[in-house]
Structures are given as structure tokens and as C-alpha cells.
Amino acid sequence: MSANPPELKVIFLDIDDTLFGTSDFVVEARTKAVEAMIARGLKAEVPEVLQELAEVVAEFGSNDDHHYNRLMKRLPESATAGANHDLLVVAGVIAYHNAKWKKLKIRPEAEALLRDLAATDLRLGVISAGLVHKQMEKLLRLGVDRFIDHKLLFITHEVGIAKSNPRLYTRCAEVAGVPTDQVMHVGDHPYHDVDPANAAGFRTVWIRGTGKHSKNLPKTEPNHILDDFVALRGLLDEEYGIPLERRNRG
Ligand SMILES: [Mg+2]
């Protein structure tokens, strides 16, 4: 531990690709969706439908509510003729969500650390991009809501400021009632989690991991670059003097 560890009052966490890996479930869930549609009369091969679906998501964004409707409109007539389009859409959506929620689990080392942090004086919050109910559902299904201060839950569509804007981070620190240099943000996205939080004066942790954003470098230097929550535990203990009981070890 350094002689005078920086004081930390609040730690904010990103959700997607930080608390769990999104790439872990997306391919499998989409495949299950397409298989369910084929089982109900879609006449196409899985890879070609997956390709079209990937294009729909890329064009309309991951928060669009009509991926499977759009997919049906774009597939060749020969693939969809004779089938009940609405039935196929709903079959796809159900299969996607079933597979997703089965697979979507918090990383065990992240859960262990959050549990231990929740027992300290530090307050934990969330800063996440997306639709508010969708992100809340993730928090609840991951079981993270138990560990965080519910007043410190900031979802961009609800706040009205995007993650790329440092004002989002400034606002979060204001609501928490602490100076930004006593706040840490932990996330995977170089331009959404690192650069704007740096600009706001936060202590920044870039969980580089293996997520889809790990290949791009932030434009500004994060305070810490870590592989995972095991390393974060070590960092908080050694550099920030946060005493963590290791109740979840062994
Ligand atoms: Mg993320």
C-alpha cells in the first residue's frame, strides 16, 4: 500500500462487457432464435439468417425492438412464403430471450468483489448506456441490485446524457455528493467509460478484458488498465487502502 492512498468514496460500474460478457451469449442466443424460426417453417439455412440478423442489428442498433420483424421483411420471399410471419417472429424472440437469460451470469469474481465492497463504507453505483428498463432487468437478473446504492443508478436514456459526454459523469458525482477525484469508474469501453470519465476528473479503471471494445485504445490514459475483477480487488486493496475481507476465497 502506498503511504497516502487516494481517497475513494464511490465506485461506479459499467454493466455490459464489464459485469458480464455480452459476446458470450449473443451468438448462441441468436442461433437458438433462428433455429426456433426454422422449426416453425422458415425455409433457410442458419448461417444466412444469422448474417441478415447481424446486419439488422448493426443498422438499427441493439436497442431496436423490432429485429425479428425486420429480419422477416428482409429474407427472400422463398424463405418466408407459406409461414405465419408473426408466429416466427415471436418464436425467435422467445428463443433468443430464453437462451440469453440462461447464459447471462455475473462474472463470479465480480460478484465476490461487489459483495465485499458492499460491506465497506464505499458506495457502489452504476453508469450504463441503454434503455432504463432493459438495463435494470440486467441488474436484477445478475443480482447486482443487492450491492449498489439505488440512488446511484444512472442509465443514459433516463438521464438524457450519453456516456460519451463528460457531463454525465459530472452529474453522477454531483448526485453522489462527492468530488469527482474521489469517484472511480470501472468499465470496458475506451471512448464511453475511460475518456469522458477522465475528462470529468474521475479515477478511471479500464477493464480491458476480451470484450468487443478491447481492441480500441482510449484517447486519454486511464489511471489503471486491468484484465478483470481479481486485479481490481488487488488494486483497491494495495493502491487505495480499501480493506477487503476475502470471505469468498477457498
Ligand atoms: Mg460496457
How would you describe what is shown here?
It is a single chain. The chain has 250 residues and is of the alpha/beta class. The protein has two domains: 10-20 and 105-238, Rossmann fold; 24-103, DNA polymerase, domain 1 (Orthogonal Bundle). The chain has eleven helices and six strands. It has helices at 23-39, 46-60, 67-74, 77-80, 85-103, 108-118, 132-142, 156-159, 166-176, 190-199, 229-238; strands at 10-13, 123-128, 153-155, 183-187, 203-207, 224-226. It has a six-stranded parallel β-sheet, with helices on both faces. Strand 2 (123-128), helix 7 and strand 3 (153-155) form a beta-alpha-beta unit. Helix 9 packs across helix 10. It is elongated, with a radius of gyration of 20 Å. The two termini are 24 Å apart.
Question: What does the secondary structure layout of this molecule look like, with pairings?
Answer:
Elements: E1 10-13, H1 23-39, H2 46-60, H3 67-74, H4 77-80, H5 85-103, H6 108-118, E2 123-128, H7 132-142, E3 153-155, H8 156-159, H9 166-176, E4 183-187, H10 190-199, E5 203-207, E6 224-226, H11 229-238
Parallel strand pairs: 1-2, 1-4, 2-3, 4-5, 5-6
Helix pairs in contact: 1-2, 1-5, 2-3, 9-10
This protein binds magnesium ion (MG).
Give descriptors for this structure.
about 250 residues, alpha/beta, Rossmann fold, DNA polymerase, domain 1, 2 domains, six-stranded parallel β-sheet, 11 helices, about 10% strand, elongated, binds magnesium ion
